[in-house]
Design goal:
With 374 residues, this protein is an alpha/beta fold. 40% of the residues lie in helices and 13% in strands. Strands 2-1-3-4-5-11 form a 6-stranded parallel sheet, with helices on both faces. A 4-stranded parallel sheet has the order 7-6-8-9, with helices on both faces. The two termini are 22 Å apart. The relative contact order is 0.13. The structure holds beta-D-glucopyranose. Beta-D-glucopyranose (BGC) binds next to loops.
């Protein structure tokens, strides 16, 4: 979507949301709740996992802003990646009579009891970006196509290395995201479905010996909490133990930017310099530090998810729920949470490489040229 169109769409949405509100009220301080369910379009609780990653700050701020402009009262909370903290925050939102809860979960399997309370209070729940598992009490799911994110990373590696043309063997080190995040498996499977045949044919070799053959084996390369420093330490270990005697890593499959940041630091500390011998390194989110690394040839690509469009979509869903009209979904088969298939809206992710940073990230207004020194 072009910037102009997106802005117009947001304005139109805000206007239409505002028109449905009896009166509007605004809230000043972030991370606090104001108003009650009687004011504006009602209270919407937004539970985000952590402030420590750039994207969740942006996600929270955008959705909060959109809803406030439309006359909703909001409670925007960040849980410092602590499950208990997130549960308490959701409980508070329920006690404050929220009409709708938007939850980007930390552990997708830990929210069943609190969501049962929400269901008893007739509060609708939208899983935001990450699916919530094992409960009937999640009404909708809005996300990017998570499998496609991984597939794009796998295809990027396939193309850059010329694997289809029979080139190789290359040394690969695979990483996966946090195993308590439902998305992590989708990302990994998307990439692995592309890369696995080359591992089997010997064109991709994994010197660290990580074997990913069975369904759950991706967990052996997962990084808990998506932490940069854990990814860095893991990469340090692999390089120290398995890359002796001049052996070089040619490609690192990283599911997202926070891991890629740690991996790039590890590569740096082991003497890998940007240039022909620097490994291919994937990512996701287009975090500012990573876009700068792409500019500096320390990361090869990122899969950009324009989180503003996710916020726009979720705001539309909230509006439809509150108005009692049909909630738009475009996938009713992929996301089975172990209890039911959750009606979902999937948005398309986009690959960004050095050459199109300006066209994709700056011209769309995601970053200012200034921020990227362009
Ligand atoms: C999100 C990614 C993010 C990761 C770490 C995932 O659930 O989809 O965009 O990089 O969590 O926060």
């Amino acid at each position: 979507m072009s910037k102009k169109f997106r802005v117009l769409a947001s304005v139109a949405l805000a206007a239409s949301l505002a028109a449905t509100s009896a009166c509007s009220s605004t809230r000043d301080a972030e991370e606090s709740t104001s108003g009650s369910s009687g004011s504006g379009g009602g209270l919407v609780g937004i539970a985000m996992p952590t402030r420590s990653l750039e994207r969740w700050n942006n996600d929270g701020a955008h959705l909060d802003d959109l809803l406030k402009k439309a006359g909703y009262t909001t409670s925007l909370q960040f849980a410092d990646n602590k499950v208990d903290q997130q549960i308490t925050q959701i409980e508070n939102m329920i006690n404050q009579n929220a009409k709708v809860l938007v939850v980007a979960s930390i552990d997708g399997t830990a929210l069943s009891p609190v969501l049962e309370k929400a269901a008893n209070a007739k509060i609708k729940v939208i899983a935001y970006d990450r699916l919530i598992n094992g409960t009937p009490n999640v009404d909708y799911y809005a996300t990017f196509d998570n499998y496609l994110v991984g597939k794009l990373q796998g295809e990027f590696i396939e193309e850059k290395l010329g694997l289809k043309d029979g080139k190789g063997p290359f040394n690969l080190e695979p990483f996966a995201g946090s195993s308590d995040d439902n998305n992590a498996k989708f990302f990994f499977n998307g990439a692995w479905d592309v890369l696995k045949p080359y591992v089997e044919s010997g064109k991709l070799v994994i010197p660290s010996g990580k074997k990913i053959a069975g369904e759950e084996d991706w967990k052996t390369v997962s990084i808990t909490g998506w932490k940069s420093e854990t990814a860095q330490a893991e990469m340090d270990n692999r390089l120290n133990s398995f890359y002796t005697g001049g052996k070089k890593v040619n490609v690192v499959l990283s599911p997202n930017d926070s891991l890629a940041l740690g991996i790039a630091q590890s590569l740096d500390s082991k003497g890998y310099k940007p240039g022909a011998d620097y490994p291919i390194l994937t990512g996701q989110d287009a975090d500012l530090a990573n876009v700068k690394n792409i500019q500096a040839d320390k990361q090869s690509m990122t899969v950009w998810k324009d989180t503003r469009t996710l916020g726009d979509q979720v705001a539309k869903m909230i509006d439809a729920i509150v108005k009692g009209t049909t909630v738009e979904v475009n996938d009713e088969k992929t996301y089975n949470n172990g209890n039911k298939v959750v009606p979902s809206y999937l948005l398309p992710p986009v690959v960004v490489v050095k050459d199109d940073i300006k066209a994709k990230l700056v011209d769309s207004g995601f970053y200012t040229a200034d921020k990227l020194g362009l």
